[in-house]
Amino acid sequence: MSAARAIFGSSETRFAYTLLLPVSILLAGLVAYPFGYAIYVSFTDRVVGNDGQWIGLGNFRYLAQSPAFSAAIQNTVVLVVASDALKLAIGLGLALLVNQRLPGRGLLRSALMLPWAMPAFVAFLVWRVIYQPIGGGLNLLLTASGIWPEVVDWLGQRSTAMPAVIAASVWRGFPFWFVSILAALQNIPLELYEAARVDGASAWQRFWAVTWPAIRPVVIVTTLLSSIWTANSFENVWLLTQGGPSDATIVFPVLAYFGMQTQRIGEAAAVSVAMLPVLAILVFAGTTMMQRGEEE
Amino acid sequence: MKRQALLGRIFTYAVLGIAVLIVLFPVYWMIITSLKLPREIYRTPALWPQVFTLNNYRQLLDDKGFLDNILNSLIVAGCVTVISLAVSSIAAYSMVRFRTRFRGVIGRLILFAYLTPTSLLFIPLSILMARLQLGNSLYGLVLVYLTFSLPLSTWLLQGYFRSVPRALEEQGMIDGLTRLGALIRIVLPLSVPGLAAVAIFTFTGAWNELLLALVLITSESARTAPLGLNYLITSDVLPWGPLMAGAVLSSLPLMVLYFVAQRFMVQGLAAGSVKG
Q1: What residues of chain B lie within 8 A of the CB of A229, using their CB?
Q2: pLDDT tens digit sequence for A170-207
Q3: pLDDT digits (tens, 9 = 90+) for A72-130
Q4: At B87, is the pLDDT very low, low, confident or very high (cuts 50, 70, 90)?
């Protein structure tokens, strides 16, 4: 028995590995290698045109003292927590409403999925126009209806810029939650609700006894995935505010991109690597949940 | 009890109605702004324009060359979709049909790759592409877009392939098909809805991507649609009219696609959690 045969076994097994070869090579070259390389570069003082030298934790020490970096940490946390909590609340609420036996239900579902079908870059460009003080739709609605008489520069002032970014992100992101939760709701057998009603359970008790256990796995996976995506979303902040005004909405990916633009590659890599510890926990939990869901 | 049910119904429709209005307003504003004259955009904004014009579209297509951007996007997204489907369908087949020793590990690594964000990879990828002399080219863009499309389509296709009964394949192999023949003649045709859904997700992902394009593409002739629009807003004067015309043109094909294939999309989503 040859060595190769000892490792790879029968011809069937060899065939199985052969089929996996292209994807493995491409992902090794395009994901694994760059991933490791990003970590390496973050420990060097590389700039454009000069590969730089190993400087240990130099970049991270510099970032720890940089006000833009602290702002990015704070903003990213606010963005992730606020927008994902809102997406969950809105997505769950609307899914529960649409899950009733309603005339026009299919149409409502399609309409509510619309932001998901819109490319993210289009969505955020449209919101940028809507937020404008001159010619923006939001100010028009608010002043015309008398809700708020003054014209507000939503993206231009520190106090409203982050809420505006969050609102636009929620608009674009809630359908994913809505559709996922709705799919899980539709798998719950109606008899369970009947049984709970016969037992005299209130609507609130029915939710916690029947609905919640059935949708919990979906909610957990969606929370993990959405947190990863929100923490790394570039388009929303870039197209709405480019991180401004004066770093009020700066987040990790935008800060890293700025670093890249100013040609300080080592520092820019350190920005994205700095969030790796938190990210790793989320990714590990996410993959575990997804694999478990697959086996069931 | 009856009264309560009626009130409940009114509440439901009221909330859903408001939600639908909030969802639709930006879409409405995009379309209406794209059809307005500049003076109606900036000086006298209104919910309904006095004059409709196609000038914004003309300006975008003639002066800004947006048609080239759309074409580049089509080429890139099309190539990514074809390559991804080919590579990931054989990989997914192997993962589903063979109980190899490293199956669990490989499955996990594919998920890791899927969840590894672009924001972490864009710096090393731009260095890598420059080294491969693919920096400012659509080929390079196709290659780097495989970083997110391959893991996603492999993961999703596993779900679809698993639902093809093994017995059908075995029957085919008794009738003289090879393994590969069984995949091509039996499994793939039975998974057409799944393949369609994965193709749409992959195409959309590549069509929507901005960060990597921004970092890799420097010449105007290689700009994709998101890139073309991005550079419209980094100029000093913000041309909202043409910008919204571009927004309409870039989203229309996808929105039509989604509505035609909505059923597949929702199933696909349920099968493997897809980023929008």
Answers
A1: 117, 275
A2: 999 999 999 989 988 988 888 888 888 888 888 888 88
A3: 999 999 999 999 999 999 999 999 999 988 888 888 988 998 898 899 999 999 999 99
A4: very high
Q: Which residues contact A291 (CB under 8 A, 6 or more apart)?
A: B104, B107, B108, B111
Pairwise CB contact (< 8 Å): B118 & A234: yes
Measured between CA atoms, the residue of chain B closest to residue A290 is B272
Cβ-based burial of B137 (10 A; exposed 0-12, middle 13-18, buried ≥19):
middle
Residues 180-209 of A with CB under 8 A from B: 180, 183
Q: What's the whole-model pTM score? A: 0.90
Do B240 and B33 contact (CB within 8 A), yes or no? yes
Indicate the residue type of A125: L
CATH 1.10.3720.10: does it fit domain A68-295? yes
Listed in sequence order, the DSSP H helices in A28-151 are 33-42, 58-64, 67-98, 105-117, 120-130, 137-145
User: What is the residue extent of each domain of chain A?
Assistant: 68-295
pLDDT attached to residue A287: 84
Please list every residue in chain A whose beta carbon sits closer than 8 Å to the beta carbon of residue B93: 19
CB contact under 8 A, A38 and B47: no
B228, B76 contact by CB (below 8 A)? no
Count how many residues are written for chain A: 296
Selection from B274, B149, B272, B118 nearest residue A226 by Cα:
B274
Chain A residues with CB-CB distance to B116 below 8 A? 31, 35, 283
CA–CA dist A242, A149 (Å, integer): 28
Beta-carbon count within 10 A of B3 CB: 7
CA–CA dist A177, A183 (Å, integer): 10
- Give the pair of three-digit tokens for residue B25: 């307003």
